[in-house]
Amino acid sequence: MKRIICICLIFILISGISVSAITFSSAEENVVARNEDFAKSSPEAYIYVFLTQEMELSTATACGILANIQAESNFDHTAVGDEGKSYGICQWHDPREGVGRWTALKEFCDKNGYDWETLDGQLYFLHHELSTLYPNTFRMIKNVTNDAEGAYSAAYDFCVYYEKPANPESKGIFRGNNAKVHFEKYHNRKKGDISGDKSVNGMDLLLMKKHILGIIKLTGADYLSADMNDDFKINGMDLLLLKKMILS
């Protein structure tokens, strides 16, 4: 750990950067900074950033959608289901070849310059569908209270009125409860609190080091908490900033 921190300090000194001059990126810069590497490192975190920054949704609403995407595809944008008839993070379904929401995804992306086989393309299609084809559902989930119960409501309504799986009510309840878990992880999560214990200490430093060394893989809210400088990467610079926070 000391070796990594020393390397980071040497880099800063060589570059002429003052530690005190390091600042966090703005939300606007964050949207621009999202990239393919970030999507691969933590699809869940990438989706959450898109929902809260690109779509400007509350934490509760975003967590409601996250719970549904987790149930449908486990955040895998390449997931195929229903014997090859459903695809993507929301498992958009074609009841027959060339007809249905999977085909609509392809057509939307082709028309608007997105790749339907990427996470970005699918997220923009999700936003398009909610805005144009499911405006009442979109209005309901956007208007929930920004708390655990609001996350439950958003997940339930998204399941019943947007995803529309078999047994929607029972699945809506399950996803609603999962949304509450997501909300507790994301809401008011502090930078550096990687363990989620509401404090920043040596345990968080250890978790970050293990992630950098490839021993563990941080995802979701843990990943975003470890990204100290909001560049959507976790590396020696984040380790240095976390160390500085603990010592201050």
Please, could you describe this protein's structure?
This protein is mainly alpha-helical and 248 residues long. The protein folds into two domains: 2-33 and 190-247, Type 1 dockerin domain; 43-186, Lysozyme (Orthogonal Bundle), CATH 1.10.530.10. 62% of the residues lie in helices and 2% in strands. It has 13 helices and three strands, in the order H-H-H-H-H-E-E-E-H-H-H-H-H-H-H-H. It has helices at 2-15, 27-33, 36-41, 43-54, 59-73, 101-112, 119-132, 135-142, 148-163, 168-186, 202-212, 220-226, 236-247; strands at 80-81, 86-87, 92-93. It has a three-stranded antiparallel beta sheet, covered by helices on one side. A hairpin with a 4-residue loop joins strand 1 and strand 2. It is globular and about 60 Å long. The two termini are 18 Å apart.
